[in-house]
Amino acid sequence: MLKFAYSPDFILIGLMILIIPLFLWYYRSKIDIIKRFFSDMDHRKLTGGKSARVELLRFALFFLAGVLMIVALMRPQVGTKVETVKQTGIDVFFLLDVSNSMAAEDLKPSRLEKAKNDIEILLKKMSGDRIGMVVFAGQSYLQFPLTLDHSIGRLILGTIDITTVPQQGTDIAGAMKMAIDGFGSSRNAGKAVVIFSDGEDHERGAEEAVQTAAGEGIRVFTVAVGSPAGAKIPIYAGDVVAGYKTDNEGNEVVTKVNEEKLKKLASLGGGQFFRSDDNSEYLVKLYDDISNIEKSEFGAFKVVEYDEVFHWFLVPALLLLLAGMFVRDDMKWFSEVKERVDEN
Question: What pTM was estimated for this model as a whole?
Answer without folding.
Answer: 0.65
